[in-house]
Amino acid sequence: MNKPVFIIAAWIALGLEIGLKPALELGSRGVAPSLVLPLLVFVALSAPSRVVRSSALLLGLSIDLTATVGGSVTLVGPYALAFLIVGELVMSLRNAVMARNPLTVGVLSFIGALIVAVVVVVIYTIRSWIFADPAWSAGGQLLVRAGSALYTGLGAIILALVLLPLTGVFGLGADNRRAAIGRRA
Amino acid sequence: MPAGPAQSAAARRALPIFIVLLAVLMFLPPKRLGWVGWFGDLATVVIAPISHPASRFAHWIDPPRDHRPNDESVEQLRQDRDAALYQMQSAQEQIRELERIIRELQGGAPFSLRRRITPLYAPVIGGSSDLSSRNLIVKRGSKHGVVRHTVAVVRAVQIVGMVTEVSPKTCTVRPITDRAAGRIEGRIIFDDDGNGLACSLSPTGKGTLRGDVGAVVGDRAIDPSEITVGMTVRLDDDAWPQNAQMLVLGAVELIEDDPDKGLRKIVTVRPTIEIERVKEVTLQLVDDEEDG
Fold this sequence. Notes:
Chain A is mainly alpha-helical and 185 residues long. Chain A contains seven helices and no strands. The longest helix of chain A is centred in the middle third of the chain and has 29 residues, at 102-130. By secondary structure, chain B is α+β, with helices and mostly antiparallel strands. Chain B contains three helices and twelve strands.
C-alpha cells in the first residue's frame, strides 16, 4: 500500500468527519456518519493483513485522540480496539464479497460501525461504573450510534464511488488483493 | 515491498502486547490521563487545516437555527438591548455580592473583586470525534489568555458553555446542553429588576435544558402559574464565575406540571441559538484589578 497516500486520505477523512459533523448531523441527538471507518473498510478489503492492522490502529488512535469522554477526558484505546476488530472482520469476509462494489463497502461499513458502537459503548459504560459518571447513558448512546451506523453505511456507498477508482493510487490493486488472500490462506 | 518472515513474526508478537497496553490505558483514572491530552491537542492542531475550512463550509451551508423570532431590521437593536440588560443585571448581582462580602469582611481587609472582562473572538474549528460529546474545539488557547473555566458566549449574552481544557493554541468548550455539563441553576426572569423564579436545569441531550421551578428570587411575589412560554431564563449559579451570572441560558419552551409534586412546575428551556453548532464564540477573559 502507498503509505503517504493513505496517511493523506486519513488526514482528510478525519478532518472532514470532525469539521462537517454539524452539517451532516440528523436531529438534535447527534446522529452523524463516520468518514474514517469506510476508509478502513476500503483498505481492509484489499491490503495485506499486517497493513490492515496497522491502518486500523492508526485510524482508531486518531479518533481516540480527537474524542472526549465525560466532557473533558481524552482516552486512548476504545476506537483503536474497535477498529482492529472491524479490520479483522472485513479480512475474514473479503474472500466472500465483491470488493469493488460500492454496496459491499456500504454494507461492511454499516456492520463495522455497529461493532464500533457496541465496543465503544461497552468500554465507556464500564468506565462510567468505575469512575461514577452519571451523565453516561448506555441505552441512549447505543440508539444514537445505531442510527449513525446506518448513516455511515449509506454515506460509505457514496464514499466508495470516490475511493474505488483510486484503488491503484492507494497501491491496492487486484494483484495485491489476490496476494493478500493467498498469504492468509 | 512484502514484509520478511522475521518482520511478520515480530508484528504478530507485538499485536497482543499492543492490545493489552490499550486495555490498560482505557481504564486508567482520569487524573492519570493528562498526558494523553497533549497528544490530543497535537492531533487537533494537525487536522485543523482540514477541519476548520470544513467547519466553516458546514456553517455556511447549514447555519445554526435561531430560536428567536427573526426580523433582521431589529436584530442589532435586540442584541444591544440584551447586552445592556445583561450588564445591568450583572452589575446588580455584583453589587449584591459586594454588599454580602463587605458585611462578612467588616474589618475592612483589602480584597480584589473588581473585574474587567475582555471579550476574545474565537472561531470554532471542530468538535469531538465521539458522538457522545458535543464539545466545541475553539481556535484560542493559553497563548491568548484563555484559562480553564473561561466562559464562552455568543451574541454577547447567550451562554455557550465553559472552557474545560486548554492547550497553547486551542481550547475545548463544553456546551451547557452537553449531558456531561451537569445541572445548572437558572432564574426565570419576570421583570427588568431581575425578579423571578429559581430553576434547577439539567441537559436533556436534545439541545435543551429541563428541570424543576423553585423559589421566588427578589422582592416580588410570583406564582409559578405565571410562567409563560418565551420567558428569558438567566444563569444564577454560584458554581459559575461571577462574570457569567445573569447571562442568558435560553427561553422557556415548555411548561409542565410535575407529576410527583402537585403544584410544582417543570420547565424546558431552549437556548436562543443552537449552541452546539455555532461557528464562533466570544470568550470572556477576566482580569482582576485591585480595588481602589
